[in-house]
Amino acid sequence: MTPDLARAGEELAAECARYTAMGWMRGTSGNLSVVLDRDPLRLAVTVSGKDKGELTPDDVVVVDADGATEDPVKVPSAEAGLHARIAAVAGAGAVVHVHALAPVVAAELWPDGVELRDLEMLKGFGRAAHDDRVVVPVVPNSQDMRVLGNAFEAGFRADVPALLVARHGVYVWGEDLRRARHRLECLEWLLRFKVETRRHAP
Amino acid sequence: MTPDLARAGEELAAECARYTAMGWMRGTSGNLSVVLDRDPLRLAVTVSGKDKGELTPDDVVVVDADGATEDPVKVPSAEAGLHARIAAVAGAGAVVHVHALAPVVAAELWPDGVELRDLEMLKGFGRAAHDDRVVVPVVPNSQDMRVLGNAFEAGFRADVPALLVARHGVYVWGEDLRRARHRLECLEWLLRFKVETRRHAP
Amino acid sequence: MTPDLARAGEELAAECARYTAMGWMRGTSGNLSVVLDRDPLRLAVTVSGKDKGELTPDDVVVVDADGATEDPVKVPSAEAGLHARIAAVAGAGAVVHVHALAPVVAAELWPDGVELRDLEMLKGFGRAAHDDRVVVPVVPNSQDMRVLGNAFEAGFRADVPALLVARHGVYVWGEDLRRARHRLECLEWLLRFKVETRRHAP
Amino acid sequence: MTPDLARAGEELAAECARYTAMGWMRGTSGNLSVVLDRDPLRLAVTVSGKDKGELTPDDVVVVDADGATEDPVKVPSAEAGLHARIAAVAGAGAVVHVHALAPVVAAELWPDGVELRDLEMLKGFGRAAHDDRVVVPVVPNSQDMRVLGNAFEAGFRADVPALLVARHGVYVWGEDLRRARHRLECLEWLLRFKVETRRHAP
Pfam families annotated for this entry (chains A, B, C, D) (predicted)? Predict the structure, then answer.
């Protein structure tokens, strides 16, 4: 392991443990990645099929821009290809994908995109708290990462660092894992607020 | 204690502590088991009446295919007979039974079985994320494990590793405790999603 | 401190920390007691006004059958009189009073008493899982412990070890703190189930 | 650092960690302050932009009555000016501002103020449990702390130690951080109760 990969492994395992404790990575769901190199693109991504609350820094594998690995043993997450696509298109340094409930409920209620506006927490998502309409795109679920990646890219806007995959989960990205985490936490709060207040609408 | 039983006791206590922390084993509710031998069937099952957050590896008792024990002191869970039946019929290596709320609410709302389809989390339950209709069976509650066992067996399908007992709780099984856990966590998520989105249906 | 009182203090502090972590003793709310002597009645009750997540074994005070203390310094919970009344009338060895949300919501929705029936969790409350109608009494809130105590006694049945105080909280009792805890946990689950399924009723 | 500032830093970091664990400071949201001096007013306030679950006692900065600092390096929370205004007008020794969900949902449902009455938890908010009508004021969100401060002051009543900022969060204050915490915890409970029971209203 290179020092960069070792450090990425430590950070990825720590973030996974955090999200697992929040109930956002039930079963073996979800996966996180960090960019190691830009040219050519190389990412460290969490391995497939492990309990995300029990990852070690070694449970990480290097993939290329297609999500493919040359690792003879470790299997990257099946969604590594979408991580790589997001990192390439959005220029993100870290991509987090979790199965929090509120984002998936929101995607079900607003399948054409979830509109958020005039909420303080939008600042933590990189937008303005007033008069700034944000629409988080929703794409249909697929097992083909090229299909998902094309749908992502078709709806991509540089100022919306998140993607909802219907009946599946949420992707959020940022410069590094810390900033992606803050955006994810704010977005999850916003979507819970949106779902909760819809219930009470007259 | 044999080494196998001692190891089973350690694993069962650890899993119980985990589920208790999630609020799924309130009071002294729920029970877990692992298969020790297949022929004749012998299972290690958690003892009756103890706080599941405070089990020790010794709080485990060996039962046969009828859920009966020869242990002169320890009392197995009253539901040990259903654990043994599930292990025999489904060929499971571990059976977990918890009183999470969402499964019992779902069983109340869909008493003829809970249909799940086109949801990514179904992969963590051993099924496909698309075009694969899953119906989790619901059986009426009973204190007679033969009655429950017959109802379970009547609705058993090898590709649905779970059973909802109405107004009671959920059983999930798998090759070992880890895999049963992952299936349970995914099923609980799916049932929360199902209940939450029903509330918002037009 | 007598050894009995010291042990009671340790147990009361530990149980308070547990309930605080569950969100059931927000602010400085709630109070717990254990009976030290029956004739005349003496109880160890948690002191007033402290954060229940930060109690020490010393934060306990001895009260008599009226909830009064001879302690020159420590102030017992204002509700000590009701604890003593419950201990006397029900013969309980421990009384727990917490401000969990579901019991107070249930008391609001069913002000004439909350009916529970045909639910497995009733076994953990000391009743049968089938064909056994349980009505948890609801009394109006009051700051006068004699008024509350009279309302409690008027509706007391030996087979219902709990009392809901409207717009306030829940009392549950048992032989000791452990058994009171198990009954409380089961009752809270039952009331959450009752509230959740009412929401979905046609 | 003066001893007072060092102690304030320790207490602020500990309270932030507590609220973060409760999910009330997602992303980098929320900020806390304690008064160091009254004349002229000086407060220690948490720095801007950090994860509130990872603050150290050093992540605190001194501001004046306008929320301005002379610190050459550290940036106070953008809301420091409102903290100072509340401390001045209400005479509070500590001000806590968090993004718990229920207060923001309540502000959305009752934009003219949230009425609370005849609830035991009001005692933990400094009011009576009976026949004492409390209205928690709601003000529109703003990024200008003078606008927010003026709206706060216009609706200020000495017996209501809280302010809801619509689509943003809640401020609660008290003599010190501990008492502000207890009031916040009680208010959050009260607003959850209010929101939950509204859902069930006929």
Answer: Aldolase_II
Say which DSSP state A66 is in. Answer: T
CATH architecture of B3-199: 3-Layer(aba) Sandwich (3.40)
Which of A48, A101, A104, A138 is the best mutation test for B, with the most CBs of B within 10 A? A104
* Contacts for D186 with CB less than 8 Å, ≥ 6 apart: C26, C27, C29, D121, D122, D123, D124, D125
What mean pLDDT value characterizes chain D? 96
Q: Average pLDDT of chain B?
A: 96
The complex's ipTM works out to 0.96
Tell me which residue has tokens 């080494």: B3
Whether residue B171 contacts residue B153, with contact meaning beta carbons closer than 8 Å, is answered with: no
* Other Cβ atoms within 10 Å of C72 Cβ, number: 5
Closest CA to C102 of B23, A23, A37: B23
Q: What DSSP assignment string belongs to D69-128?
A: ---SS--B-TTHHHHHHHHHHH--SEEEEE--HHHHHHHHH-TT-EEE-S-GGGGGGTS-
Residues 105-134 of D with CB under 8 A from A: 105, 108-109
Measured in degrees and rounded to the nearest 5, phi and psi for residue D197 equal: -80, -30
Which tokens in the block code for residue B125? 């339950």
Distance of CA A99 to the CA centre of its chain: 9
Average pLDDT of the residues in B19-45: 97
Residues whose CB falls within 8 Å of the CB of residue C121, separated by 6 or more in sequence, listed in order: B26, B27, B29, B99, C186, C189, C190, C193
- pLDDT digits 0-9 by tens, D150-172: 999 999 999 999 999 999 999 99
Residues C124, C134: Cα–Cα separation, whole Å: 13
In the predicted structure, residue A202 carries a pLDDT above the cut 60: no
The residue ranges of every structural domain in chain A are 3-199
pLDDT in the model for residue A2: 84
Asked if the Cβ–Cβ distance from C168 to D199 is below 8 Å, we say no
Contact D182, D172 (CB under 8 A): no
| CA dihedral over C192, C195, C196, C201, signed as positive or negative | positive
Residues of C within 8 A of D185 (CB-CB) are 26-27
| Distance, CA of B163 to CA of B102 (rounded, Å) | 13
The mean per-residue pLDDT over the stretch D113-142 comes to 98
